[in-house]
Amino acid sequence: MFWGLSAALDLFEEYLNMSKSSAESCEGEKPNEEPKIVQINILLFGSNDPRHVIKTMAKMYAHKAKGTTPIINFYIVDGCIETTARYIALLGIALECPESMNLRGKVHLFMDVYGNSLLRASSYQYLVGKTKSLFKMITDDECRERLTPLLNFENLKYRERDGLENAFRFWLPKEGHIFQIQEYWAARLRKLMGVRYDHRDGAFDWDLNMVLKDREGQQICSQEYRHWRETGIAFTYPEYEYSKPNKTLAVGLVRNGDKYIHRGYIGDMQTGPFAAFGLLSTDERLLHSAHGQNDYRSTDVTERNLLELFHELSSETPYEHNLNDSRRYGSVKLLMGKTLLYNECNIDAMHDYDKPWIQIEGIKIHFLSSEDIFKLRNGDDCWSNHFDVAFVGYNYFAFLKDSFIKVLKEKCLLILETKLMTTARNEDIATFEEKLMNYAKVNNFTSVINYSALNKKHSILKYKRKMDAEETCANNC
What we know:
By secondary structure, the chain is an alpha/beta fold.
């Protein structure tokens, strides 16, 4: 919950690569040139955050430069309405008008809201101002059309729209809107650790160095991981102070007069928000390490990757990174960002962030009702043969039935997230991955990559429909 455990993907590129590999499998035939316009429907089934949407939108200009015009409909489904509200807020930051803030300020703001239990005062001010426009957008279709016509809420039930309004209202700084995240985090940490609580630093180091780094978490540094496990603050810089509660992490909100009842903090406390943008980079300079020490933290890699994506979203031009802009904190012992006491009502928005969002031509983002989880898994006729790409989060695989395959097109890409980037035992990781593979095999899917030939575990598994040679050639040649 709150963030994914696999890296952000350009899902349009993944679909094109799958289509090319299918075409090239026809003996004696060469794949046709890419069509000028490619329209696809993408289902994000419990992805937890908008990482795939952001990266896919950011890379659209590159596909257009190659002569392909993507038209993409995203369909977002999640069982928790507060997670959907957070999803919308994070999209709002990524697509914030460039006139409202500079690029690096936007990146640090996104990192704050995405991965920190406590926010900087400036980030909290932004969230308050942005919340006011989000509230209007949910209640007024004309306002939504003016600000961001790429969002579509038609599939949400009225009670779910009320849930979004409830979440946005809770984020505003009022006396009864209390979210004591530090207390919730500490109490839950003590409960999860049990008898190991007094030796938690050693447990944190074991989880990172003996578990996560042995999987795909080599870029996470001990200092940033321990600080996140202790406080819930993942992305820190020594010049910043963290004092305001990140209310986007609140779920189960129920209004009680002027106050709210909620479930405290119930999200991940073992892996962290590093996987989406902080483990991989096209800039290999940031992945250098020596004697077991990284030159750059996962925080610094996250910053660099988001700088690229947000630059591409706003300018539709390639990003060139100046390495001097990345602070080399991997092996430096930092005085971690301070956490301060605060008064809930002592702050208000300096601005109302109500300028139109960045518009990405050819993109539509549809938010589905939680009831659609069951319609999709049962292969309901209203979704039959609808999706070209489906991404299934690891914690939503349990909802799938064989009938789910009915909502996928004949030529489709199915991406299943594994539990690799958790601290679960190796046996549990292997068992879960075997379940994913069996599900694909039973439903006549074949892997895009020959996983059996690779002696490693994977954070995602990619599959395409298995078809005989004649059918493949008929569909692709």
